[in-house]
Specification:
single chain; alpha/beta; Rossmann fold; 2 domains; 5-stranded parallel beta sheet; 4-stranded parallel beta sheet; 36% helix; Asp/Orn_carbamoylTrfase; Asp_carbamoyltransf_Asp/Orn-bd; EC 2.1.3.2; transferase; Aspartate carbamoyltransferase
Length: 313
Amino acid sequence: MRHLLSINDLTKTDALSILNTAETLARASDGPMKKLPTLRGRTIVNLFAEDSTRTRISFEAAAKRLSADVINFSAKGSSLSKGESLKDTAQTLQAMGADAVIIRHNASGAAHTLAKGEWMSGSVINAGDGTHEHPSQALLDAFTIRKHCARGNEDLTGLRIAIVGDILHSRVARSNVVLLTMLGAKVVLVAPPTLLPIGVSSWPAEVSYDFDSVIGEVDAVIMLRIQIERMTEMYLPNAREYSRFFGLDKDRLSKMKTNAIVMHPGPMNRGVEISAESADSARSVIVEQVKNGVSVRMAILYLLLAGTAELEI
């Protein structure tokens, strides 16, 4: 594996390898030695042309825990804000000797363009491209679900997972549907018709417009933020109406299965897609998702840059 651009580039074996490596690294991170020498001397660039908190900091923490040198490169403080092309930026990074570039960009396909090898030779990791994909988020979600719900299984066979909200604009939903079904789970998408993409019937998932009929049947529910910044039309009457039918509130929380968990990729709109009580409940693993994200991203960097080298712990 040279790049991580899309969940579709992974086989089930690849995905399980990442999750199992992350589990090993998570145990190591909980031990006395917080930093591993695995990627010492390697240079990793965080190239973020869109705002990000969790993903950028998570990748930075992951790289540093593997002893890599990290360069943070954001659009607002770089020549990208002055109109510099992705090509010129990539060639600059190549000249700096970047071994890997983690890219978030508002254009779908930006990571694939960078990975073609014409402008730079390092590994490329897609940290979210437009409304296309966000593979590392899907992997950390699968890691979290497996930890809490898989009942000792290596994969997610037998689990039912709901993804609720703005499916239309969500790169997280696209990556999750592919990965979770690859790992054996059944996925149901819950959203109003206006927030479902054209062609969703061809996705390997069920579709429901009735959250109440689904909430009691799932092992995990992944709530999605309404992405106002990507909306160019009127998709909803108002936030209150949306929350009434598709928000996770106290009443819906009480209908969940005994061991079912609540997830959210962040950032959250409290009081819209999820109530404060739900976000902070004992069922919520939202903060844990952030912690798991570091371990999963460590695994991605390790497998891309260290290959089959023995994991030094």
